[in-house]
Amino acid sequence: MSRTALVVGAGAGISASFARLLAGEGHEIALASRNPAKVAALAGDLKATMHVGDAADPASVDRLFEQIDRQFPTLDVCLFNTSARAPGRSPRSTPIRPAPHFSLSPTAAFSFVRLPPSGCCPMGPATSL
């Protein structure tokens, strides 16, 4: 059975490099992105499946996990690499009201880890990257 990997927040940077590394080691890859058109070429190069999703939206995460559960009986690696960037200067943030792009990652991380895919961690507890 082949090893499997899910990359959430797939893009052209760290996540693409990580996906290439895993594909080179024989992993079957699934890429999840809010904008899959940006990583379509990467998906083609790696023969990866593409999944549309927003990690900050719990319903979108549920749909993603349903798709991954159908695709992979077990999930060996999961990279959580979401971000949102606004062009130009960052808006002013306060401890009570962080700028939207600063609050996305913690919000998305909570949404994502609350219910991992059913096949995740077949050998027991594991660390998500």
What does this structure look like?
The protein is α/β, with parallel strands linked by helices and 129 residues long. The chain is 36% helix and 15% strand. Strands 3-2-1-4 form a four-stranded parallel sheet, with helices on both faces. Strand 1 (4-8), helix 1 and strand 2 (28-33) form a beta-alpha-beta unit. The protein starts with a strand and ends in a 16-residue tail after the last helix. Residues 122-129 have low confidence and may be disordered.
Task: Kindly state the number of beta strands.
Answer: 4
Based on Cα principal axes, name the global outline: globular
Unreliable stretches (pLDDT < 50, length at least 5) are 122-129
Averaging pLDDT over every residue, what do you get? 76
Order of helices and strands: EHEHEHEH
Radius of gyration: 15 Å
- Enumerate how many helices there are, as a single number: 4
> Can you list the strand order of the major beta sheet?
3-2-1-4
Largest sheet data: 4 strands, parallel
Helix share bin: 25-40%
First-to-last CA distance: 22 Å
Please report which band the strand proportion falls in: under 5%, 5-15%, 15-25%, 25-35%, 35-45% or over 45%.
Answer: 5-15%
| Secondary-structure content class | alpha/beta
